[in-house]
Amino acid sequence: MIKAIFWDNDGVLVDTEGLFFRANQETLAGVGATLNWDQFAEISLARGGSVLTLAEKPGTEAFYNLRRIRDARYADLLTREPLVIDGVREALDTLQGKYAMGIVTSSGHEHFEIIHRRSGLLPYFQFVLTMKDCAHFKPHPEPYLKAQALCGCAPEECLVIEDSPRGLASAVGAGIRCVVIPSRFTGASPFAGAYKILKSVRELPAALEALA
Questions:
Q1: What single string gives the DSSP state of each residue in 129-146?
Q2: Which sequence spans correspond to the domains of the chain?
Q3: pTM for this entry
Q4: The CATH number of 4-15+83-211 is which of 3.40.1360.10, 3.40.50.1000, 3.40.50.150, 3.10.410.10?
Q5: Is 100 left (phi over 0), alpha (psi -120 to 50) or beta?
Q6: For the segment 68-81, what is each residue's pLDDT rounded down to a tens digit?
Q7: What separation, in Å, do the N-terminal and C-terminal C-alpha atoms of the chain show?
């Protein structure tokens, strides 16, 4: 029986992956480096790495300067348009009160706060884990192991909602079943090991009923 649901943020609750790609692409262009979507999907969405390594060596001052520029650009883009994915609010309305729910994201805390300043989604969730709360990030299992410990449920009583290969790997590594809802940016990715793959978040309540 499922008692807790752990939601990824970017690409699952909010449509931000395209904006993050744009912020990285524009930042890299400023130092004469190029970034295409295939590179971004492989480095960032699949492996959880930084595409800024295409221009600068990690750990150097030049890399950190580039990251500061990228982060500022991303923060600006996040304020410009509605971000909540269609169907998310309705799904959360249906599931609220039936399950303990938390957000588990590798996003930075500052960007997370900007995203949800206007989203209205946070009251649905009992807890949030961002990058600042974990020593390791997806695809490492630590974020979902920590979420499981927070809710006090066994792995088989938890369910993860993800959209990316690295998120799926994190859930599987933690021994938790994962429902994948591919975003418009991750639909071509392989999702071996997923418990179920849905076309839309609108299908999730019915999928949970079938699981019960």
A1: E-GGG-SS-TTSSHHHHH
A2: 4-15+83-211, 17-78
A3: 0.91
A4: 3.40.50.1000
A5: beta
A6: 999 999 999 999 98
A7: 6
